[in-house]
Design brief:
By secondary structure, the chain is α/β, with parallel strands linked by helices. It has 17 helices and twelve strands. Helices cover about 40% and strands about 10% of the residues. Helix 5 packs antiparallel against helix 14, helix 10 packs parallel to helix 11 and helix 14 crosses helix 17.
Length: about 500
């Protein structure tokens, strides 16, 4: 009883010290600004400070204990987190399809975290419900739709899964209540260079990976429409029910854009849902110079677009866009939970958009993009896209000019794929061990650059091609000096191989 009385008495005051909390936050924000932002984007600093997992675990002291630690220790832990993390905002981070650190987008991300609300009802997220609607409408407008629907989702992979689920529901609405057992064997089609989320989505949704038909691509990685037609006819002959084609605008490795017009013609002939995975390439729609790469996208039924990639919005910002205006997204995913979506609310319930998503709690992903867009305007975003293309074009010409560098192919997008051939392998192309030996070069150079901390770039094999580098520039902070350094460093690190 005494303990309970003491606990009740403690309710007279807050359970924490607001003044101390504010002081800690002020100091933590200093760490964020100085270590993560200033040093993290300083070209003279390391991109990463590599440590092996056991050593890193000990350095960070990750164990959680029964008693708390003083503010000074916590602030040092914040510094350590930054120190040993990869600096994705660094001008020499070329490793992923995202990079850079935009101050306006970062401000939006910080505000999002501070406000800590969920994007499901107008009553708890009034600003963001309206803001999301405006941003999604602007993205749809760039696709070429004057109306439609959409929602921000946790990543492009989930957007693609939404497309698969909505397309299935549109074709077979009974699947929502009766499940897959009530449906014929379904078939969907995508290129053999498409994102792996299509395979994952088929497994996750119960469609089955064996029912994902991988369509052949040409030498540049683009889906061949005639092969798509053959695969559809084959699936029908085998007793399957085709329902979806997923085309890709900006494949992950080669940066290929499928021919949307011809693919849309095939879909219309067979009455199939056309989804376009433009997670990577969608931002080219902002540029009048480059939007032709996505010609025909307005004929799609749905589109995935990740502004967190090429526009440096920050993770994550992924839009699932629909041409449909009938409420298909709501009908497919809605459950009408009465503790959230009460039917007797005092405001217009059409603003409670959360039931469009399979999620309940949903992160606010629109603010960072909205604030960035307000800061730069559409013209500024277009310039950002065109600068990325210019960087890739410059690098491609440099690769062709320099000894020991060989393009995998001329880039259509901003994926620059190339091999570095060290002196020991030059002139040995006809030798049987040439390609196996060349395939070991990129992994070794990657290890050396990470241990040194000088930069980061990705590599991979592709089909019959051995490991090659895939260089991506999306950060507006990257200069010609950084691009020259990149090629010089590849040469330095691989010269003796």
């Amino acid at each position: 009883m005494a303990q309970e009385a003491a606990a009740m008495a403690g309710l007279e005051h807050p359970g924490w010290d607001p003044a101390a909390g504010e002081e800690f936050l002020r100091e933590a924000l200093r760490v964020l600004l100085e270590d993560a932002v200033r040093k993290g984007t300083d070209v003279t600093e390391k991109v990463c400070e590599w440590r092996e997992p056991p050593e890193l675990r000990d350095l960070l002291d990750l164990e959680l204990r029964s008693r708390g630690e003083p503010p000074e220790r916590l602030l040092q832990r914040c510094r350590d987190v930054v120190r040993y993390s990869v600096k994705t905002g660094h001008p020499r981070f070329f490793n992923q399809l995202f990079s850079g650190l935009d101050p306006h987008a970062l401000a939006g991300r910080l505000l999002t975290e501070a406000l800590n609300t969920s994007q499901y009802t107008f009553e708890v997220a009034p600003v963001f419900v309206l803001m999301e609607g405006v941003v999604l409408a602007k993205l749809r407008e760039l696709v070429g739709w004057s109306s439609g629907d959409g929602i921000f989702a946790p990543g492009g992979s989930m957007c693609n899964m939404y497309a698969m689920n909505v397309a299935r529901f549109q074709r077979f609405p009974e699947c929502r209540s009766l499940g897959m057992a009530a449906l014929p064997r379904l078939a969907l089609f995508t290129s053999c260079d498409s994102h792996y989320s299509i395979q994952k989505g088929a497994a996750f949704l119960g469609i089955g990976t064996d029912n994902v038909h991988l369509v052949a691509t040409d030498e540049r990685g683009k889906m061949i429409p005639e092969e798509l037609e053959k695969e559809i006819q084959k699936a029908k002959a085998e007793g399957a029910e085709p329902f979806l084609v997923c085309a890709t605008c900006g494949t992950t490795v080669l940066g290929a854009f499928d021919p949307l017009g011809a693919i849309a013609d095939v879909c219309e002939r067979h009455g199939l849902w056309l989804h376009v995975d433009a997670a990577w390439g969608g931002s080219a729609l902002l540029s009048s110079k480059h939007r032709h790469l996505l010609a025909g996208i307005e004929r799609a039924h749905s589109v995935t677009w990740n502004p967190h990639k090429m526009l440096t919005v920050g993770l994550q910002c992924s839009a699932f866009l629909l041409r449909d205006t009938s409420g298909l997204l709501q009908r497919c995913h809605g459950s009408g939970a009465t503790y959230l979506f009460q039917q007797d609310k005092f405001y217009d319930m059409s603003y409670d958009t959360g039931d469009k998503s399979p999620q309940c709690g949903r992160r606010v992903d629109c603010l960072k993009l909205w604030l960035l867009w307000k800061a730069t305007g559409t013209q500024g975003l277009a310039q950002r896209v065109e600068r990325a293309f210019a960087c890739s074009r410059y690098l491609a010409e440099e690769v062709k000019r320099r000894d020991g560098f060989e393009l995998v192919m001329e880039p259509e997008f901003i994926n620059l794929c190339f091999w570095f051939v060290p002196p020991s392998l030059r002139g040995r192309e006809s030798c049987p061990d040439y390609w196996p030996s060349l395939g070991k070069v990129a992994p070794t150079i990657k290890e050396r650059m990470m241990r040194k901390g000088s930069m980061m770039v990705g590599y991979q094999p592709h089909g019959t091609r051995v490991n090659f580098f895939r260089q991506i520039v999306t950060s507006p902070a990257v200069t010609r000096a950084d691009l020259d350094f990149f090629l010089d460093e590849i040469e330095r690190l691989g010269w003796d191989l």
